Amino acid sequence: MITIPIETSARHIHLSARDVGILFGEGYQLTPIKKLSQPGQYACAELVEIQSKESWGLAPHLDFTFGKSCDHNQLRVLGPARDKTQVELSWSDFLSLGLSPQVALSGETTAPSEKIILIGPYGELPLTSGIIIAKRHIHCSLAKAKAYELADRQIVSVKVIDDGSEEKLLSRRVTFHEIVVRVSENFDWQLHLDVDEANAAGIRGLGIGEVIK
Predict the structure, then answer these.
(1) What is the number of domains present in the chain?
(2) Staple 139 to which of 25, 175, 187, 189, CB 3.0 to 4.6 Å?
């Protein structure tokens, strides 16, 4: 049996160096506050507000929010800066924003979508591409790829066998399909799901899955 840790990835944003300057000021450097599971990746102290084109400029009690709180419309910035800005949301987030969902691999170029507005302390930025639901994907090191005979871009399934709870109830058994294996010397072995997917499987904390080729 090939087992893999399952991590839940909440909504977030990757910014290009150019867009960091637009939102936070020219020459601004992002502030790392927490290392992430993948080598060299980190969460930043910086947050970016997001608005739909319909809600942009409305009063706080009327503008867009992911939840009931009027200030629940911010995305955590993840570093380091990338070549292109990319917003990663769940299906539920897309519906909240009134956008048509686009599923794509992280880093892929996507077709133009409805506009959103990114708002930082220094400036605002309209965005019409790179707004995605990330395809389910496995981060796979070269060593794991060799050991498990996996290839880059191979499609696999993963059956959830541990939901991460102390009780190990697995009350919502799920097998996820159409998972893309991404192989790199810079990756650690892990399956990434978004919040909707993790909730569907009842995953709390770090889950465990069985890879099915």
Answers:
(1) 2
(2) 187
Using CA atoms, how far residue 72 sits from 11, 12, 38, in Å, is: 12, 13, 27
Picking from 192, 201, 188, 199, the residue whose alpha carbon sits closest to that of residue 88 is 192
Q: What's the one-letter identity of residue 203?
A: I
Residues 105, 195, single domain; the answer is no
Domain boundary among 134, 162, 178: 134
Asked whether residue 100 falls in the same domain as residue 124, the answer is yes
Q: Let me know if residue 107 belongs to a domain.
A: yes
Whether residues 27 and 129 share a domain: the answer is yes
- Tens digits of per-residue pLDDT, 45-83? 999 999 887 776 666 655 556 655 555 688 999 999 999
- The residue among 43, 42, 47 whose CA lies nearest residue 20 is 47
Pick from 43, 137, 135, 139: nearest CA to 91: 135
Any alpha helices (H) in the chain, and if so which ranges?
17-24, 91-97, 142-148, 195-200
Q: Within the chain, which residues score under 70 in pLDDT?
A: 56-72, 109-112, 166-171
120 and 162 belong to one structural domain: no
Three-state secondary structure along 42-63?
EEEEEEEEEEECCCCCCCCCCC
Distance CA 22, CA 28 (A): 9
Q: pTM higher than 0.90, yes or no?
A: no
